[in-house]
Amino acid sequence: MLVIQRAVMIAEYGEIDYPADVLDEMRERFMIHGSRSPFNWVLRLRAYRKKIRNTTTSLGYIYWSDDHEKLTYKKLEMTMAHFKDFIRAEVELAQL
Fold first, then answer.
1. Where are the alpha helices (H) located in the chain, listed in sequence order?
2. What is the pLDDT of residues 27-65, one digit of tens each?
3. In this structure, are residues 8 and 21 in contact, taking their beta carbons and an 8 Å threshold?
4. Hey, where are the domains in the chain?
5. Burial zone of 7 (CB within 10 Å; 0-12 exposed, 13-18 middle, 19+ buried)
6. Is the distance from CB of 32 to CB of 25 less than 8 angstroms?
């Protein structure tokens, strides 16, 4: 409310034509999250990058053995037989 009051007072004193001009300048000056400032654009890009990083498997984490029977993901090693058993158990749990 104080920011709006300040903008109206500046407009009343004739220093600017419209209070909205001062509000836009203050938003850009103080980089308020959710405003139309360049800083907010950077924050939105950063959040988008984090979402992609957290939901996408990076190259180099998944390795298959030469015979394609063993899968390694980070520190997890699993054969195809173990993987099939895991999927079977998950399906059984889901059906309960």
1. 2-12, 19-30, 38-55, 80-95
2. 767 666 666 666 677 778 888 988 888 888 767 778 888
3. no
4. 2-55, 62-95
5. buried
6. no
